[in-house]
UniProtKB/TrEMBL annotation:
Its cofactor is Mn(2+); Mg(2+). GO terms for molecular function: ATP binding; hydrolase activity; RNA helicase activity. InterPro entries: DEXQc_SUV3, Helicase_C-like, P-loop_NTPase, RNA-DNA_Helicase, SUV3_C, Suv3_C_1, Suv3_DEXQc, Suv3_N. It comes from Rhinopomastus cyanomelas. Its EC number is 3.6.4.13. Residues 598-619, 685-715 are annotated as: Disordered. The gene is Supv3l1. One of its GO terms (biological process) is mitochondrial RNA 3'-end processing. It is found in: Mitochondrion. This is ATP-dependent RNA helicase SUPV3L1, mitochondrial. Belongs to the helicase family. Residues 263-431 form the Helicase C-terminal domain.
Amino acid sequence: LSTGEVLKKLNKFYKRQEIQRLGAENGLDARLFHQAFISFRKYIMESSSVSADLHIILSDICCHVDDLFPFFLRHAKQIFPMLDCMDDLRKISDLRLPPNWYPDARAIQRKIIFHAGPTNSGKTYYAIQRFLSAKSGIYCGPLKLLAHEIFQKSVDANVPCDLVTGEERMYANENAKQAPHIACTIEMCNTNTPYEVAVIDEIQMIRDPARGWAWTRALLGLCAEEVHVCGEPAAIDLVTELMYTTGEEVEVRNYERLTPLIVLDDALESLDNLRPGDCIVCFSKNDIYSVSRQIEARGLECAVIYGSLPPGTKLEQAKKFNDPNDPCKILVATDAIGMGLNLCIRRIIFNSIVKIIINDQGEKEIDCITTSQALQIAGRAGRYGSSFPQGEVTTMHRDDLTQLKEILNDPVRPVKAAGLHPTPEQIEMFAYHLPDATLSNLVDIFVSLSQVDGLYFVCNIDDFKFIADMIQHIPLNLRSRYVFCTAPLNRKEPFVCTTLLKFARQFSKNEPLTFDWLCRHTKWPLGPPKNIKELVHLEAVHDVFDLYLWLSYRFMDMFPDAALVRDIQKKLDNIIQIGVCNITKLIRVSQSAAAPGTAEVVSDDSPLSRTKRDTRAVSSPSVKATEALSIGVGVPAERRSRNLKAFRSATRQEDLKSYGRGTLANRLLREGLLTHEMLKQLESEWQDQHRNGRYGFGSKTYNQSSSDETGGKKK
């Protein structure tokens, strides 16, 4: 056969719209069709011989290229085995009727009551009162802190109540028999147990890209006579539509804010203008560190709250700030204060109005905070019943204030869709049809084949796939592997990731993970931190203990020492509290260990700090958070557009020039891998080589005239 003629026929075959349509009907979407064709073409062009029937088709000058399709499809099924069972897989991944997944809830006529209102409107209060007065009830909240709060309110009201979170169980009855009331994190709610009243808090999180599935499951699946839903009015329409598909009506009760919230006409502009009851909101740890140090340099005490602190430490810092007899009157916090903490704040001050967001493709971007986020945070000021009759909100910098007012005045974007997530049963059925596929591939195939209607979306599964790929080489059965992949894990913490890997490896050997094993791995006991790096490590160890406790409720025999681990976790929480109380001292130690002139403290994922020259927003993944700088609070910011595209474009080149050098050196100095003397020697050598037009790399030396990627002749 003439290879040229064969190649022409194959390319003509590939371009035929009819062939692509036939491929789609047989489960080959555009991506799979292209991959299958590349493999098919390579097979034909590189084979010394082909089957007789295929040879006849290719050699027949009168043949129609469509006749190649059966041979192409046979080859495609060899490289994509799922094509043989595509109909079954499509049925398994059909997510168009989620209400049908919960027959117990569909068997009763539920009463749905939506308590809609802004922060500090009392909407949750009325739902909780109904919860406490019911014969049985379940509260589902987004945070452990909220579940703890409702648990404590139940205890104070003499209502027997259990606490159920991923890492903790507290029972009202000594024999651990289930109490009629349960306060839980929303992922832990049981859809099979009947209740008189169910409360679902922060319903707007049903749109969350990662956790939205948990609110969808609770809303559709809780088997309760009354379901009280609390949240933003922006979710009313979606909840009403979802309940229309179940045949249930929604009663909406609207609430207004109980105290006034005033947006001030003046920015703070200087930390000298702070007053008791002020809270400065930052969107990065480095901003937290820098601002808190500058506050204490003015002789003021401040409390510090950010997301990675243990719940106990957050509560202690909140208690310290709220205590009228404590000299601490200023709070520095991230948006972690938006939920779960009762704080007596007079004025919210936004240090910045930009933060890292996750876009629809799961990529990180830097953009202005949304109206919903701004209202959630600003609403913490002037809490009803506190010593401040009204709340105030402003910004640190004058140029941010106009934009903050615009954001707060914008309507909140309506919640359009509810999240879904593949269940273990669905993945097991996929594995039955595709026994050789990895768990990560199974989930990918599931998502690609899944069908949802306009009211739903499939949640982001990047964290799930990250763990699945990390433990793929460890021999585990599918159900255990799935459980490990749903474990709460901070991917940015290498120590926590490494520990999960060790847990899985030990588990696969059927060797229990004992208290002694965990202490050896974490080097417990640990002392108070001497610098910020040690504080961050202690937070990671606390996450490891959380991970152990989470797994202990799913594999009790293999993680047998939960009680002992909980005891040392409480001790660790106290140690972290000591570190946070002395945070400015830790910052000074960390900065003195770094290169002179730098304010870099610790690697952070949100490099939004301000400098005395300008404001930086770094979105490139190659420019990491170790490039954080100190805050110059007295200097006005550069005006940003809402989407910041023009701003990022204008600053990116300057970012690279300003930040590109020194950051690596600072990190190496901080980690003890480089000394100041070595740095001076390297700088001297670099300058000598630069003057001579020669650059040395190992044993090779390149002249400045050598070609780079622009295409000159290499020497």
